[in-house]
Design a protein that fits this description.
287 residues; 11 helices; 17% strand; Rossmann fold; 7-stranded parallel beta sheet
Length: 287
């Protein structure tokens, strides 16, 4: 087990942040959470965490949360507006990194995505992520960026009623990963200095296109795959003033253009290879 280092998790009540906080705690770290609603966080995560009330927009609460910690894990989700992507994926990461450097925090870990680069910055979200990563790298604080592929846990989010929506022409094979494998790898990164100042590609054990993955999920969940074009979803979003639909159309258009690049070899060597297959995950989550 680890020595009792303290890791701050920002975004611990989210789908990707919660399992990282839980895994860090299971691995023997003291885990501090910066949360807007401590009661909600306590109900969601249970006992055994140090809860600090605050927000990434409030520098005073950031400074308090970043005092006397050995590391900070950032798991924030912006959107659907361009301003909100900037606020969460760029400005918050920039401010956390700056304060972490001032307070001599040992490392900052950040969940990002595989298709984040200047070349691929064709949406408000991807542009903000590029700026956030650049701010982290230039801050001088030791960092690890996790360039994760699609998570299996996102599949249920595409379900409406008895249909799962396949949005756009998603031709690229994707190495779907379970959140539990990612959380284990994120926690392991705090147990070795070999992960410092690296961008690590976090890919699961098998590759399926989004359509193939949805078909597997649909068979377990008893739903039907229902294709819709990104342009149709965008029009529906505009007609119904639904910003989330418009944002989803933009996101899925982005992933029509960009498949996985980079290699998971270094991440797997340093942190242990992901093990959970999509079929295993689907079976487990339908029980």
């Amino acid at each position: 087990m680890t020595s009792a280092k303290t890791i701050l998790v920002i975004g611990a009540t989210g789908m990707l942040g919660k399992p990282v906080a839980q895994q860090l705690k299971a691995d023997g770290f003291n885990v501090r959470l910066l949360v807007r609603n401590p009661e909600k966080a306590k109900k969601l995560l249970g006992e055994g965490y140090e809860l600090m009330q605050g927000d990434v927009d409030n520098e005073a609460s950031l400074r308090a949360a970043l005092t006397d910690v050995d590391g900070v894990h950032i798991s924030l989700k912006g959107g659907p507006t361009e301003a909100d992507f900037e606020r969460m994926d760029h400005f918050a990461v920039r401010d956390i990194a700056r304060i972490a450097k001032e307070k001599n925090v040992g490392r900052v870990t950040l969940i990002s995505a595989y298709a984040v680069s200047e070349e691929k910055a064709d949406t408000p979200e991807s542009r903000s992520k590029v700026r956030g990563e650049a701010a982290l790298k230039s801050s001088g604080v030791p960092y690890t960026i996790f360039r994760a592929t699609w998570f299996m846990e996102t599949l249920p989010l595409f379900v409406q009623g008895k249909n799962i929506s396949l949005i756009g022409n998603q031709i690229h094979p994707l190495h779907w990963i379970a959140v539990e494998d990612y959380a284990r790898m994120a926690s392991k990164s705090y147990q070795t200095d070999e992960t410092l100042n690296k961008e690590l590609y976090i890919f699961g054990p098998e590759a399926y296109t989004m359509g193939e993955a949805m078909k597997i999920y649909a068979e377990h969940a008893g739903v039907k795959v229902s294709p819709i074009s990104t342009s149709m979803l965008s029009v529906l979003g505009m007609l119904t003033f639904n910003a989330e639909w418009k944002g989803m159309a933009t996101l899925m258009k982005h992933y029509e253009n960009w498949g996985e690049d980079g290699s998971p070899e270094e991440a797997n060597q340093l942190l242990g290879s992901p093990r959970v297959t999509l079929n295993e995950w689907c079976k487990r989550n339908q029980e």
